Amino acid sequence: MGQAMIQGMIRSGSVSIDQISATAITEETIDFVSGEIGIRISDDNKRLAADSDILFLAVKPYVYQGVIEQIKSELSEDTIIVTIAPGINLETMRKYLGKNVKVIRSMPNTPSLVGEGMSVLCPNELVTETELNAVLDLYESFGKAEVIKENLMDAVPAVSGSSPAFVYMFIEAMADTAVQQGFPRDKAYKMAAQSVSGAAKMILETGEHPGKLKDDVCTPGGVTIEGVTALEKHGLRKAVIEAMNATTERSGYLSKQ
Ligand SMILES: NC(=O)C1=CN([C@@H]2O[C@H](COP(=O)(O)OP(=O)(O)OC[C@H]3O[C@@H](n4cnc5c(N)ncnc54)[C@H](OP(=O)(O)O)[C@@H]3O)[C@@H](O)[C@H]2O)C=CC1
Ligand SMILES: O=C(O)[C@@H]1CCC=N1
């Protein structure tokens, strides 16, 4: 996810390669990131923490505590720490850091890589409006971003952080069926993915209700209504609601750890 954000920022032109530094653990990642992305990268977390104005912690949730333990002595009171992990809430960060430091809790998603990310941010009380806007600008360089209150943060992965995975499954199922009908694989992915992308754009750009846009596609006695009826019969909406609630339940569980 960190790589998607870095590449999204660089591709947008809002940040240059020499303004970004990173760390990783394995030689494989260090070689790949320095070779393919071209930013400075090492395995020295302490040094990176000491040198950064805005420090993104893009590790797995269970790695946060150890990394914070390692770097907390290096942080200045002006450093802005940005989290991207579900379940790492502002209070958990305060506990891990042992003091009140500027923290922005966020939840990005992987389409950031291609400038189509959807991110949600929530600052703690020490972050000024100017600082929040600076970080928001970074997130908006690789997609759309919203600031919300922390009580909704556990529900964000279901809607935007994790939801690309759900959409990929939908596209994969459509493409598999198209292949079953005889389409070559590459055309099947292109047709399914572009239709999903186009439908999403219709909602964002026309502001129309999704139900109305769906109705516009369904010719009376035509072919689409047959598919829509089959989706209802097989519980598409129920499956989506169950998936989102399961995702949010897990976020809530991680937040309480
Ligand atoms: N994947 C997604 O779609 C999204 C993920 N997130 C969150 O992003 C975070 C990262 O997830 P994801 O990118 O999928 O995971 P990855 O495992 O792909 O990336 C984690 C990165 O952290 C590095 N790392 C691990 N331990 C350390 C350490 N001690 N010091 C420095 N670097 C370290 C790893 O280095 P190395 O490669 O060398 O092992 C790796 O590059 C998680 O908290 C996840 O919940 C949030 C939104 C969406
Ligand atoms: O699956 C996860 O936990 C991370 C957070 C959102 C997307 N991936």
TrEMBL record:
Keyword Cell membrane: no
Pfam families linked: F420_oxidored, P5CR_dimer
Reaction catalysis annotation: L-proline + NADP(+) = (S)-1-pyrroline-5-carboxylate + NADPH + 2 H(+); L-proline + NAD(+) = (S)-1-pyrroline-5-carboxylate + NADH + 2 H(+)
Residues holding NADP(+): A58, V59, K60, P61
Residues bound to NADPH: N45
Molecular function per GO: pyrroline-5-carboxylate reductase activity
Broad class of enzyme this protein falls into: oxidoreductase
Primary localisation category: cytoplasm
Compartments reported by the entry: Cytoplasm
Swiss-Prot/TrEMBL GO biological process terms: L-proline biosynthetic process
Keywords: Amino-acid biosynthesis, Cytoplasm, NADP, Oxidoreductase, Proline biosynthesis
InterPro entries, sorted: 6-PGluconate_DH-like_C_sf, NAD(P)-bd_dom_sf, P5C_Rdtase_cat_N, P5CR-like_CS, P5CR_dimer, Pyrroline-COOH_reductase
Protein's pathway: Amino-acid biosynthesis; L-proline biosynthesis; L-proline from L-glutamate 5-semialdehyde: step 1/1
Pyrroline-5-carboxylate reductase dimerisation domain residues: 150-252
Keyword set includes Acetylation: no
Gene Ontology cellular-component annotations: cytoplasm
Domain Pyrroline-5-carboxylate reductase catalytic N-terminal: 1-86
EC assignment: 1.5.1.2
Family statement: Belongs to the pyrroline-5-carboxylate reductase family.
Function: Catalyzes the reduction of 1-pyrroline-5-carboxylate (PCA) to L-proline.
NCBIfam families membership: proC (TIGR00112)
Protein name: Pyrroline-5-carboxylate reductase
Annotated source species: Salimicrobium jeotgali
